[in-house]
From TrEMBL:
Reaction catalysed by this enzyme: (sulfur carrier)-H + L-cysteine = (sulfur carrier)-SH + L-alanine
PANTHER family associated with the record: CYSTEINE DESULFURASE, CYSTEINE DESULFURASE 1, CHLOROPLASTIC
EC main group: transferase
UniProt-recorded name of the protein: cysteine desulfurase
Aminotransferase class V domain mapped to chain residues: 27-400
InterPro entries in alphabetical order: Aminotrans_V_dom, Aminotrans_V_PyrdxlP_BS, Cys_dSase_SufS, PyrdxlP-dep_Trfase, PyrdxlP-dep_Trfase_major, PyrdxlP-dep_Trfase_small
Enzyme nomenclature, EC number: 2.8.1.7
Entry's family note: Belongs to the class-V pyridoxal-phosphate-dependent aminotransferase family. Csd subfamily.
Cofactor: pyridoxal 5'-phosphate
Source taxon at top rank: Bacteria
Source organism of this protein record: Ramlibacter lithotrophicus
Gene Ontology biological-process entries: cysteine metabolic process
Keywords attached to this entry: Aminotransferase, Pyridoxal phosphate, Transferase
Entry-linked Pfam families: Aminotran_5
Amino acid sequence: GDLLQRTTLPGVFPCLAQSVNGVPLAYLDNAATTHMPLAVLDAMSAFEGRDRSNIHRGVHTLSQRATDAFEQARSDLKRFVGAGPAHELVFTSGTTDALNMVANGLALAGDGPPWLQPGDEIIVSGLEHHANLVPWQQAARRSGALLRVLRPDAQGRLHVDDLARLLTPRTMVFAVTACANATGERPPYEELLALASEAGALTVLDAAQAVAHETPQLMALACDFMAFSGHKMYGPMGTGALAGRRKSLERLTPLRFGGDMVERVGEQDASFAPLPARLEGGTPNVAGAVGLAAAAAFIEQTGRGAIDAHLRALRAHAAKGLAALDGVTVLAPHAHGSAIVSFVARNAHPHDLGTLLDERGIAVRTGHHCAQPLLDHLGLGPTTRASFAIYNTHEEVERLLAGVAQALEVLG
Ligand code: PMP
């Protein structure tokens, strides 16, 4: 409790200590991007101001320090996502980059044939962000595999029985989100991954919306690949990781060739380095990796239990208050374990609602949230989405509720 309160003190999150349209900012767009605490900014600036140098290739002191900082960040993050001795973590520029690395790495031939063969089947859930759908569409096209969708029910819920019916001996990949960014739905991903894995598929978890809250733990999951982004967990933009079983990561055909990822290079061919370097061609974002590890440390120091409880309470407060407003429908009202509340209002377009809220200093996101097939399936258009982080307060939820109520009067 104490630690959590300290994170909301002015100055801990510099970007939040400002007014928008003459009103203190209530930043409720955390599912898109969270803000960085000073601890993260300081860690990155200390690296840049003292250790900045290229990694892995130098014997000089700064290069060794930079290499140590990068590899320390990797091992800190592995611990953060519950990786065991059979797991590895590769730095990426984010979730999108990580999911593309998996989909293309399974679809394209490298030294050997690719994992995906013509006639194989890929199953993706119908809750996915475009980043966990479009790469699979492309992978299917490139490999001749078939793409099947595990559709949610009319309330946007996924069912384990439905997956059991979709699985066949040709199912080679199953991909699902740990939390749907458009609705806040928290699917039973543990059971889904376990079932697909037992059936022989490689399993992919999009943890973008779960990494900062109820963080999935690799050792407890039947998960081959888990993707996440730094900017949704109080870390820097353009950072992220692909973590997973080392054996499965080894199956990925490398897609980015160049320095650092090779072992021996001749004029006509090259052999590739072992993991993790194999999938990290070129100079990485070292300051970003340092910042990402600092963000994980910040979450751990604040206390995962306290964070999870706080975010659940904010979500419940907002969902209840919004549902009580005339003409408002909250998506996934049953969802627990998410920090997202997405809603539609009978007589108000989300764009207008978002604009009126901004006039009151309240930042929410409106639109399709990069999940068009899901909203189509639910018979919905664009929505308004509020999403919470550790620095948000119940007073900000009250401001949201009052703001929406007033906007609906103006627009109605
Ligand atoms: N998956 C989900 C569930 C997301 O919410 C997002 C970001 N909105 C992404 C993937 C893509 O993340 P990034 O843009 O950081 O690559």
